[in-house]
Design brief:
Layout: E1 2-9, E2 14-19, E3 22-23, H1 37-40, H2 44-52, E4 56-63, H3 65-80, E5 84-91, H4 95-110, H5 120-131, E6 134-140, H6 146-154, E7 170-175, E8 182-186, E9 192-196, H7 201-209, E10 215-220, E11 232-236, H8 246-257, E12 263-269, H9 276-297, E13 300-305, H10 317-330, E14 337-340, H11 343-351, H12 363-368, H13 371-385, H14 399-416, H15 421-435, H16 442-462
Parallel strand pairs: 1-4, 4-5, 6-11, 6-12, 7-10, 12-13, 13-14
Antiparallel strand pairs: 1-2, 2-3, 7-11, 8-9, 8-10
Helix pairs in contact: 4-16, 6-11, 14-15
Length: 463
């Protein structure tokens, strides 16, 4: 039995692998360099077999509990395929542990001999970092589906998505425990124009149409994040081809140049690549990613949207994603995080079909449904029947997320086959989470949270 040691640091994206106490060679398949764990963990058993010519291993894994869960999932599959693997876990410091260590170091500094480190500005900067917001800047060119994707993440129609009402302001959506969103609107000079106690789609459309409004700051519940973990702020910025305020374009490029302190969700239209505005924006993205190295690279998530517009037999999802990868590489963006998506389908499932069954209707019942509901049900069924549009198979999902999707699918299918009419009814509704797969938003939400926590730690260390 060969002794394998793996240490993975998700904060620095660094991996150390030794075999029987000796580091692997540079040419080894096990030399992961700066690859994220989710990029190589599925290949680990076969890589070990190729390297060691045996299926018998004792593996010690040092890392965070989330990464160890993904490691365990892969090892469980390997055991079913004839591998004999025993595991040992060495916990790494989690986010809360690191925050505690930082606080202790700061208190030690405050009790130390260096007066300049006790200055009020220094203390204020540290406290601001502890409670600071973490922005996720969502950028795209026209018609990429940016507002629709944000609405899908929010599970409600809040951002104007009509072509004639595209984003013309900067909108900041901050997570809080409030059940409804409330907002304040500001002019170009930062002066408060009005407060909106209950923000709705119609009030957002009115604010966007008001030429005096430059920035909207809203607070409410962002479903995929807990405010206890990170003060996340989704920042919806106007595309450079659609901004009535010249400062907005400058702000977008300034945000890209400061990307070491923010996460960027870049939306691409799968049906319309290589437009000039995309070219200009991506050139700035590429320059920004080169400055920050691998940590900067991980802050950019590229979402390829509108893949559900493809027709079976006429378009290829795989070819489209390969085209996007090649397109980004031509711009100097290597090893990008690419997430295929069908934002509109995900939004419709989370709004139009909320609490409704998707299957099990008679022809008469379908005829009696609201046309919008019937249309969404029809679209979801077509997507589910077209295996190429099950977009989770193309995304860099973690093993645990893949297992979660498989588990939900099996659970819903079992309910549909049940002899109990109540279970069949529940199964028809349970299909809703399964049909969320085309949007593939779950893993992206988790990645946003993890990167946000990581970056807050980096900011606190770097001051």
């Amino acid at each position: 039995m060969r002794e394998i040691f793996i240490k993975y640091n998700p904060y620095k994206v660094e991996t150390t692998v030794t075999i029987d106490g000796k580091p692997v060679k540079k040419s080894s398949m096990l030399n992961m360099e700066d690859r994220r764990l989710q990029e190589w963990i599925d290949e680990l058993p076969e890589s070990l077999l190729e390297e060691c010519n045996t299926k018998s291993f004792h593996i010690t894994f040092q890392g965070t509990i989330l990464d160890y869960e993904d490691f365990q999932s892969v090892i469980a599959d390997a055991r079913e395929n004839g591998f004999e693997i025993t595991c040992e876990y060495i916990p790494a410091k989690e986010v809360k542990d690191k925050e505690k260590s930082i606080e202790e170091i700061f208190e030690e500094i405050q009790n130390g001999p260096f007066e300049e480190l006790k200055a009020p500005d220094m203390v204020r900067a540290f406290r601001n970092a502890q409670t600071g917001d973490f922005p996720v800047n969502v950028i795209a060119t026209m018609s990429a589906g940016k507002s629709t994707l944000i609405n899908a993440l929010l599970r409600q129609k809040l951002m104007p998505a009509k072509q004639e009402a595209c984003t013309a302001t900067i909108t900041e959506l901050k997570d809080s425990d409030a059940t409804i969103f409330h907002a304040e609107a500001y002019d170009q000079g930062g002066n408060l124009i009005m407060a909106v106690p209950e923000l709705t789609l119609s009030s957002m459309e009115a604010l966007n149409a008001d030429s005096a409004v430059s920035t909207i700051k809203a607070e409410g519940d962002i479903p995929f994040v807990s405010s206890e973990d990170v003060s996340l702020v989704l920042v919806d910025t106007p595309g450079p081809n659609n901004s009535r305020d010249p400062e907005h374009k400058a702000a977008t490029y300034r945000m890209l140049s400061e990307s070491s302190k923010t996460l960027v969700l870049y939306i691409l239209n799968a049906t319309q690549l290589a437009v000039n505005d995309d070219n200009n924006l991506l050139s700035h993205v590429a320059d920004s990613m080169k400055v920050g190295g691998k940590q900067s690279r991980d802050r950019f998530l590229f979402v390829v949207n509108k893949l559900d517009d493809f027709k079976k037999g006429e378009d290829s999802v795989t070819a489209a994603i390969d085209k996007v990868r090649k397109y980004l590489e031509d711009k100097g963006i290597h090893n990008p995080n690419i997430y295929p998506a069908s934002a509109l389908t995900a939004l419709d499932i989370r709004t139009v079909l909320r609490e409704m069954k998707v299957v099990g209707y008679t022809e008469e019942e379908l005829d009696e449904l609201d046309p919008e509901v019937a249309g969404v049900i029809s679209k979801v069924k077509k997507i589910n029947k077209n295996g190429e549009l099950h977009l989770e198979q193309y995304a860099p999902l973690t093993p645990s997320v893949r297992a979660e999707i498989a588990s939900q699918t099996a659970e819903a299918e079992a309910m549909l086959e049940s002899e109990s009419s109540q279970e069949r009814s529940d199964g028809m509704k349970q299909c809703i989470p399964v049909f969320k797969k085309p949007g593939n938003l779950r893993n992206r939400r988790r990645l946003i949270c993890l990167v946000a926590e990581n970056d807050l730690l980096i900011q606190r260390f770097s001051g």
